[in-house]
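> forwarded from #structure-qc
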């Protein structure tokens, strides 16, 4: 039996064999080791550079911040926020995801 990481690689390879214009990946690195996770991230970034549209669904904020150009936050089926990668932070994403207002300078936190 293949490890979780190798299973992920096989699934990705099968879909990439079809040369998709758009690839939707849902939690692509869940349950895999750190080295394989880095390989999957590298592959997704390379595909994006090659012109493949990537829609990644992930609950891992560091992963989202590392490999995304644009981040959309949804909560209860509704779009709550949109961030450019350069403007996003874990704190802002979590605030949007939980429905809490982001910190402001008025309450002592930097924006």
């Amino acid at each position: 039996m293949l490890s979780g990481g190798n299973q992920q690689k096989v699934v990705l390879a099968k879909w990439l064999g079809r040369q998709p214009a758009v690839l939707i990946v849902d939690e692509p690195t869940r349950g895999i080791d750190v080295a394989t996770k880095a390989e999957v991230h590298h592959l997704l970034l390379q595909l994006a550079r090659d012109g493949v549209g990537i829609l990644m669904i992930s609950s891992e904020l560091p992963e989202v911040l590392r490999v995304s150009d644009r981040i959309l936050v949804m909560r209860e089926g509704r779009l709550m926020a949109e961030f450019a990668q350069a403007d996003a932070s874990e704190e802002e994403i979590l605030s949007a995801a939980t429905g809490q207002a982001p910190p402001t300078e008025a309450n002592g936190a930097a924006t």
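QC bot note: Residues 73 and 81 are 5 Å apart (CA to CA). Helices lie at 4-16, 34-49, 61-67, 90-98.
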